């Protein structure tokens, strides 16, 4: 199947700093990318959906100014956690889909574990 | 709004025995159903999906799932469990009626296969 990579896989930062997470589709063009957040022993919660070249659509309760999403190309999306705080510590997973059709497969990255001290 | 329920937090089964992980869903349109598996500190791996057609879907690693429209269920099954099947399993649904066709996940079921 198609491959989605994330970088970094693990990051530790101080409170108040910003962290950028990259998500790349390696062998296909991702028209749509999704960012999820997963707390320990919990399910994946969708944070936002982005289509290449347009602004992301955020889920209710997700602060768009805190979680900046850029989907500048068909193979790269970035999530920037601005002024991170300990409560932002979580496992962030991106997902990419080729095309907009309902039957199109959605592929997941390996995740990034963010720890804010 | 679409939703998925996985009623069991954990399922315990002995190696070699059959396993079932339950999932029920709610959508306004037609469901597009998935099962994913997650190993510790890893992303999700696709197991199988149902779009249309045969209600019994076969997937990776010997897993299969049965779509039951009247019971709105999509239970995951395997005839003979392996210790290596121990992981976190997520059922997910995409409602064909939503704008971006968002994938909504259940809360997950931890499968523990004992030797």
Structure description:
The complex is a heterodimer of chains A (about 120) and B (about 120). The model of chain A has no long low-confidence stretch (mean pLDDT about 90). In chain A, β9 and β10 (about 105-110) form a beta hairpin. Chain A is built from no helices and eleven strands. Chain A has about 120 residues and is mainly β. Helices cover about 0% and strands about 50% of the residues of chain A. With about 120 residues, chain B is mainly beta. In chain B, the strands form three sheets. In chain B, strands 2, 5, 6, 10, 11 and 12 form a six-stranded mixed sheet that branches. In chain B, strands 3-9-8-7 form a four-stranded antiparallel sheet, with no helix packed on it. The mean pLDDT of chain B is about 90. Chains A and B meet through β5, β9 and β10 of A and β6 and β11 of B.
Helix and strand topology:
The complex is a heterodimer of chains A (117) and B (115).
Chain A: E1 4-7, E2 10-13, E3 19-25, E4 32-38, E5 44-51, E6 57-58, E7 67-73, E8 76-81, E9 90-97, E10 106-108, E11 112-116
Parallel strand pairs in A: 2-11
Antiparallel strand pairs in A: 1-3, 3-8, 4-5, 4-9, 5-6, 7-8, 9-10, 9-11
Chain B: E1 3-5, E2 10-14, E3 19-21, E4 24-26, E5 31-38, E6 44-50, E7 56-58, E8 64-68, E9 73-78, E10 87-95, E11 103-105, E12 109-114
Parallel strand pairs in B: 2-12
Antiparallel strand pairs in B: 1-4, 3-9, 5-6, 5-10, 7-8, 8-9, 10-11, 10-12
Helix tally of chain B? 0
Biggest beta sheet summary of chain B: 6 strands, mixed
Give the overall pLDDT of chain A as a whole number: 90
**CATH-derived topology of chain B:** Immunoglobulin-like
């Amino acid at each position: 199947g198609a491959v989605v990579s994330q970088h970094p896989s693990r990051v530790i930062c101080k409170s108040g700093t910003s962290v950028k997470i990259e998500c790349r589709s390696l062998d296909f063009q991702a028209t749509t990318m999704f960012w999820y957040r997963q707390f320990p022993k919990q399910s994946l919660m969708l944070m936002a959906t982005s289509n290449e070249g347009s602004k992301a659509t955020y889920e209710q309760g997700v602060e768009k100014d805190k979680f900046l999403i850029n989907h500048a190309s068909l193979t790269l999306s970035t999530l920037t956690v601005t002024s991170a705080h300990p409560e932002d510590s979580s496992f962030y997973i991106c997902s990419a889909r080729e095309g907009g059709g309902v039957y199109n497969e959605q592929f997941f990255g390996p995740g990034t574990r963010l720890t804010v001290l | 709004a679409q939703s998925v329920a996985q009623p069991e937090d954990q399922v315990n089964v002995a190696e070699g025995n059959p396993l079932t992980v339950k999932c029920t869903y709610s959508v306004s349109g037609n469901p597009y159903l998935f099962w994913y598996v997650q190993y510790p500190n890893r992303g999700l791996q696709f197991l199988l999906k149902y779009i249309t057609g045969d209600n019994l879907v076969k997937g990776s690693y010997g897993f299969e799932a049965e779509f039951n429209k009247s019971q709105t269920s999509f239970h995951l099954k395997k005839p003979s469990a392996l210790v290596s099947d121990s992981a976190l399993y997520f059922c997910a649904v995409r409602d064909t009626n939503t704008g971006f066709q968002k994938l909504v996940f259940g809360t997950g079921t931890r499968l523990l296969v004992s030797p």
